[in-house]
Amino acid sequence: MISFKLFAGTNIGLRDNNEDNFTVCPDLTLDEWRIPANHQQTIPLGKRGCVVVVADGMGGQNAGEVASDIAIKTVEEMFAPSTLPVDVSEKSGVIEAYLKKVIEEADLRVKQHSKDYPETLGMGSTIIIVWLLGENVYVAWLGDSRAYSYVPGKGIGRLSKDHSYVQQLVDAKVLTEEQAMNDPNSNVITRSLGDPSQKAKADVASYAVEQGEVILLCSDGLCGVCNDEEIGGIIEAESADLQVCKEKLTTAALTNGGSDNITIVLLQIEKTAPSDEEPQPPQKQQSLDIWRMLLYPFVAVILLCMVYSWNRLYHRVLKKENPPDVEQVDCNVPASLSEHTPDTVAEDSVLINNARSIIKLITNGGTLSSEKTTVTDTMTEESKFGKLNPADPLNDTINRVKSN
Q1: No. of helices (H) and no. of strands (E), the chain
Q2: In what order do the strands lie in the sheet with 2-11?
Q3: Which 8-state DSSP code applies to residue 326?
């Protein structure tokens, strides 16, 4: 689980006006672009993430602050819930493509404004966007505003690479980082919003966040006069309070002779390990599903055994009780039957009659009668089992019984 603390601010420095701009949205699902009232508040990361932005306007009297304002408003519009595509946060490639699209749109708007208002011709702005989403941070930038990452025990590192003339010299090993900071051309950038000579071509990178990590966004009013080690040392010493950390960084920039506007955004990550979290309902459901997987086959086996046993029992009883066809039944009464007394004759008659009824039930699908009948009734009346068949061997047996 990811949560974070957030603080941001800007300082005019020694300039007459502030051409820097910034914006923060702690939760994109709420679309509230503002600094949290309590900078010590730990904010759970929402489903759509958190976005922070810094833009450093250029152009002086040619409205650099207008260009940076256009950049900020473009970001806020394109990350609004009604504009941000629902599926944009599902894949890394889609996220990076969308960040580039946002910067391209900001570039078009700055250029269009310059055309509509000729007095602002030549204005431009840097931009750097950090999107904290899930356990990753996505960085997109144009110009020399920077993103840093400070990780306790590991130190500070850059998340972005300047689009500047001196950075090209550093890459070519013509200058060192220290020399680049003091070079007269250190403020010359090679990419920016509003540059009429080229389309905006943003760079994008992504990184996995770590526990306690502090992400810093800043304009060159800070990183142009303070080296990485000094910045990292201040963050390490003051990370317990981001507001104090921001003030200390601003003071360091001014102390080092900085005269430019100074804008700083600080985002501190709190990453909770899964083992430290309370058990979640999905885990309980998973445990229940395991028990069901074990129980269902066991119950199924028992039911199959019961069905098999009942089927065997049913066929055994049916085989025992289902005699051959009535015409083939050997109903010859033993000789001893002729010696029965009148009292036993009646009992035998009832048994025989019941046997007839059962045979008829099985062979004709009839229903057993609960009424008791005598041999005479059976011989003289039509019952639901039909008339006695004179040729029926059982009828001969009954006649012999009567004659006795």
Answers
A1: 11, 12
A2: 43-44, 2-11, 262-271, 214-218, 146-151, 155-158
A3: G
Reported as a single tens digit per residue, the pLDDT across 31-77 is 999 999 999 999 999 999 999 999 999 986 678 999 999 999 999 99
- From the list 71, 228, 65, 59, the residue with the least C-alpha distance to 142 is 71
- Using left for φ > 0, alpha for ψ between -120 and 50, and beta otherwise, residue 143 falls in left
Q: What is the pLDDT of residues 102-144, one digit of tens each?
A: 999 999 999 999 999 999 999 999 999 999 999 999 999 999 9
Domain residue spans in the chain? Answer: 2-278, 293-322, 331-404
Q: Which two tokens stand for residue 45?
A: 């990361």
Which residue in 70, 24, 83 sits closest to 246, CA to CA? 24
Rounded to 5°, angle at Cα 218 from 255 and 139 = 155
Helices (H), 23-171: 64-78, 92-116, 165-171
Instruction: Kindly report the number of other CB atoms within 10 A of residue 358's CB atom.
Output: 15
pTM tops 0.90: no
Letter for the amino acid at 220?
A: D
| Residue 198, both tokens | 């080229």
d(CA 356, CA 350): 10
Contact, 81 vs 29, CB < 8 A? Answer: yes
Q: Please return the burial class of 220, using the count of CB atoms within 10 Å of its CB with bins 0-12, 13-18 and 19+.
A: buried
**For residue 381, what are the CA distances in angstroms to 25, 369, 373, 388?**
100, 15, 10, 9
Out of 3.40.50.2000, 3.40.47.10, 3.60.40.10, 3.40.50.12280, the CATH code matching 2-278 is 3.60.40.10
Task: Judge whether 70 and 112 are in contact, CB under 8 Å.
Answer: no
Q: What secondary structure letter does DSSP report for 186?
A: T
Nearest alpha carbon to residue 28 among 71, 86, 70: 86
